[in-house]
Amino acid sequence: MMTSNNSLNATDLRDRLQTLASREGIRRWDLGAACSDDCSVQVDRGEAKQLKASQRSSITVRVWNNDGLVGITSTTDLSESGLDQALVGAHAASRFGNPEDIPQFSPLATAPLPELDRPLQPRQGILPLLDTLRDAEADLLGRHFAIQTVPYNGLAESLSQSLYLNSEGALRQMERTQASLYLYARAEETGRKPRSGGAVRMGLGSSELDVQGCISEAVARTVSHLDYRPIETGSYRVCFTPEAFLSLLGAFSSMFNARSVLDGVSLSQRDSIGSNVAVPFFNLHDDGLHPGHISAAAFDGEGTPTRRLSLIEDGSLRNFLHSEATARAFGVQPTGHAGLGAKVSVGPDWFVVSSNPQVSSGNSLDHRTESAPFVLIEDLSALHAGVKATQGSFSLPFDGWLVNNGERVSVEAATVAGDIRSVLNGIAHLEADSEVTHRGVSPHVWVDGLSITGEA
Amino acid sequence: MESLLHRGSAAGADLVEVFLERTDHIGLLAEQDRITSVNPSFARGAGLRVFRDGRDGFVSTNDLSEVGLQRALDQALAMLGLEVQQLSSPAAFEGLKQLTDHGLTKDDWLERCPSLDQASQCLLQGTAHLDRLGQHLQVRRGSYARDWQEVLVAASDGTFARDIRLHQSTGLSVLAADGDHRSSIGRRYGSSDRPDDLRDWDSEASAAEVCNSAGTMLRADYVDAGQMPAVLANRFGGVIFHEACGHLLETTQIERGTTPFADRVGELIAHPAVTAIDEGLSGGSFGSLSMDDEGMEPERTVLIKDGVLQRFISDRAGELRTGHKRTGSGRRQSHAFAAASRMRNTFIDAGSHTPEQLIESVDQGLYCKAMGGGSVGPTGQFNFSVEEGYLIENGKLTKPVKGATLIGDAKEVMPRISMCANDLELAAGFCGSVSGSVFVTVGQPHIKVDSITVGGR
Question: Which member of B1, B130, B286, B315 has the lowest number of beta carbons within 10 Å of its beta carbon?
């Protein structure tokens, strides 16, 4: 039902590849393919800044040679010669396959897929998107005198298709539509430093995006940082917003990644399942099927169905994320978190943080009413540079406020530092209300004794 | 190609540009003493950009058939309200100039690169050196990437140019662990346009550098946070200028209104000790180019001279929208991105001091020997992490420290770079921004920053 100029025909692709593979003497192969039709707009003070569209397609072919070793090749050239080149390239690469770690087809590649309630939404096209974003920018600029520009903004919509096929008859395919809006405003008052803040919204289609909510949140965040002060360096009680906590957790996801465990680059070990890694009222699931997960996929790169998986329950580590190969190494089933490769990568889908209702934290903290001083961290920056995932440590710039007796003052240029193991074991409280964000689901999370460096 | 440009011009576009690309990539990973991943990939595609009254529409596609390219062009025209049927200005396009072929002498580069067997052997030598030279190593990794790219740029102003680019990068990394102590250290080396580069790589020297750093940092204490002077080593220390100032001197930042330097050409924006340059000419450097992704030959651009702002880094759209002349800096990751003003080889120029003089001038501070990555935000706030640091006490380097993140504001930190040493060196890196990830070098001599915020525990 792909209604763009750019689509994949699964049976045609399978037949072409089967013919080429037979000619090359390749009996065992699989393939992942994707194509998309996207468009996006950016504006600058009422003018269209950049209008973009793309039609992309790509495939990754994986073959097993006569010695059972695996090689892969990727290409964007889906012509007959492109497919042939990919197949021959994968066969050549299989000479370097690792005999100690040979991926196989997922035993679940033909298992029933979960139902995903993600109806395809009609796309509006680039000019209506432009009108919507222009109006949103004008609305935002009119909300506060100090907001002079919205330097980072974008409205995008896409239609995409994914496929998985293998030589034993597996055939998975799915289509999805997706849209996103981001507004990142910059405000400046005379004699003071510029400040910024933003908001993001995602949806299945551009017509269902919460544009007004995005504008209001971007304005509120930006304006809340206008009154800023440096903070004194020291140890603070910290409350992470759901977004900030999920981004921190995501940066340390190798803790739950079986591939990283086997490679020796995780904080967890093979025998860590069952060990206590967090406070007893802390639960964490990976739920790629969550209704709030706009980019949900029914299967992973190996064709394994997506499913909800418990990672931490009552503070105890319960499961790792697996591909076919890591699952085999651990003697469990694949969990639906794999890519496609000669060495298959593993990654999380969508974290859901919750509290165990049976265990009390002993605290009743609420970021809206707490009177004792604390630092509310709204956003963490530079996770690619300031997180040492193999060591557990982090030192990250953040946006946030020092809150005292209900008064919020934005923190000027500061970093927060700590160790993820200490954070998870030092959680003072999880608030009752969870928020669905574009990163996952979490309540506000309170942690005591984090080091903050400021300029005061 | 000419029919496409004519079609776009006739529809009323001020300028039509077509970027065609073919790539051939190999990625190799060695872990411990075995090759664990070989990833070849091929790609081809086109990016078509249309300008009209200062605005632009951009469409990328993998469909290089005549019909596919025409459809992409028509889509780009429609974004700007232009229709082919209108044929409003049939004389606007006067034909392409003669092809400027920078790739003429480079056609054999791909076959001159190391074979998979040779590349594997080089990497395995590297991980073997790590094993021999390191202690407490839990993980040893070597990686190699070879990116070959052929590009053709044609535009309705007559631009017609072809080039072949070759980038190779090699990295070694380790995770050292002893009880609760851990250190993870990596180094990457990169070059452009040198097919023999991997064969010439001194893997033993690279392994020694990584092992020394990992051994030193294994039991390092966390740095005490605060405001302090810092001396930043040469080579990758240049990430401070890249993040703190370089991005703010790209015309894309003027367009967004996110640079504090927009109206300050001719003014003192940095300490008089600072002269900074961006160029695409240094032979073999990661950020060097024969032509940019808009077909223009690169130039040496003096950004700051003795602290005074001289020039901005500009591309075609930057010149059109801000008036700053193009500098051969229109760059993009691939055909899927429109070109934008991006840095190439960017560095603070050498000064007159020795590195020792800089360290001796500090009573209590931080010496940053090796840097991690960094970033800059929309208000000019920058940050970068320190991978290997040492305390400076009474003008001498003392104990190693880890976990430092340096943060600051571009306007405030540039006047605080008060001393530059005489040991300028460049280092390869990748820069991610509006037009994707591009090959760059950063660089500097040892420099001293009088005061900077050091985040830590």
Answer: B1
| Amino acid residing at B290 | S
**Tens-digit pLDDT profile for residues B149-207:** 999 999 999 999 999 999 999 999 999 999 889 999 999 999 999 999 999 999 999 99
Q: How many angstroms away from the CA of B183 is the closest CA of chain A? A: 7
Q: Which amino acid is at A11?
A: T
Q: How far apart are CA B301 and CA B279, in angstroms?
A: 6
Q: Is the dihedral of CA B76, B82, B85, B90 positive or negative?
A: negative
| Across A125-145, average pLDDT | 96
Burial environment of residue B49 by CB neighbours within 10 A (0 to 12, 13 to 18, 19 or more): buried
Nearest Cα to Cα of residue A83 among A161, A23, A172, A37: A23
Give whole-number Cα distances, A244 to A234, A381, A397, B240, in Å. 20, 9, 12, 26
Segment A267-302, tens digit of pLDDT? 999 999 999 999 999 999 999 999 999 999 999 999
Give the containing element (helix H, strand E) for B17.
Answer: strand B15-31
Determine the Cα–Cα distance for residues B325 and B316; give it in Å rounded to an integer. Answer: 8
Chain B residues within 8 A of A393 when measuring between CB atoms: 222, 402-403
The DSSP line for B312-346 is -B--HHHHHHH-PPP-S-EE-SSTTS--EE--SEE
- Would you list the domain boundaries of chain A? 10-221, 228-456
Cα dist. B102→B19, B121, B162 in Å?
A: 15, 32, 6
Give the position of tokens 């990654």: A347
Looking at beta carbons, which residues of chain A come within 8 Å of B260? 194
How many whole angstroms separate alpha carbon B45 and alpha carbon B60?
A: 7
Quote the CA–CA distance of B106 and B164 in Å, as a whole number.
6
Give me the count of residues in chain A. 456
* Contact call for A151 and B256, based on CB within 8 A: yes
Is A451 in contact with B384 (Cβ distance < 8 A)?
A: no
Whether residues B256 and A6 touch (CB distance < 8 A) is answered with: no
Q: B35 to chain A: which residues are within 8 Å by CB?
A: 96, 98
Interacting residues of A452 by C-beta distance below 8 A, sequence separation 6+: A231, A233, A234, A235, A236, A238, A375, A414, A415, A416, A417
Ordered by where they begin, the domains of chain B are 2-218 (3.30.2290.10), 222-455 (no CATH)
State the smallest CA–CA distance between residue A56 and chain B in angstroms. Answer: 6
Q: What 3-state class would DSSP assign to A115?
A: coil
Chain A / chain B CB contacts < 8 angstroms? 236
**Each residue of A312-358: pLDDT tens digit?**
999 999 999 999 999 999 999 999 999 998 899 999 999 999 998 88
Q: What are the helix (H) ranges across A116-231?
A: 126-141, 211-224
How many Å apart are CA B59 and CA B81, to the nearest integer? Answer: 15
Which pair of tokens denotes residue B9? Answer: 């011009």
Question: Do A275 and A247 contact (CB within 8 A), yes or no?
Answer: no
Q: Which residue of B has its CA nearest to A152?
A: B256
Q: CA B283, CA B285: separation in Å to the nearest integer?
A: 6
Residues B313 and A12: their CA atoms lie apart, in Å, by 48
For residue B44, list chain A residues with Cβ-Cβ distance below 8 A. 76-77
Classified by CATH at the fold level, domain A10-221 comes out as PmbA/TldD fold (3.30.2290)
Give pLDDT tens digits for A348-357. Answer: 999 999 998 8
Q: H/E element holding B203?
A: helix B203-218
- CA dist A317 and A275 (Å) reads 6
Collect all residues of chain A within an 8 Å Cβ-Cβ radius of residue B453.
Answer: 413, 415, 453-455
B79, B218, B315: best mutation site toward chain A, by most A Cβ within 10 Å?
Answer: B79
What DSSP line would sit under A153-168, residue for residue? EEEEEEEEEEEEEETT
Query: Is residue B443 within 8 Å of B346, Cβ to Cβ?
Result: yes
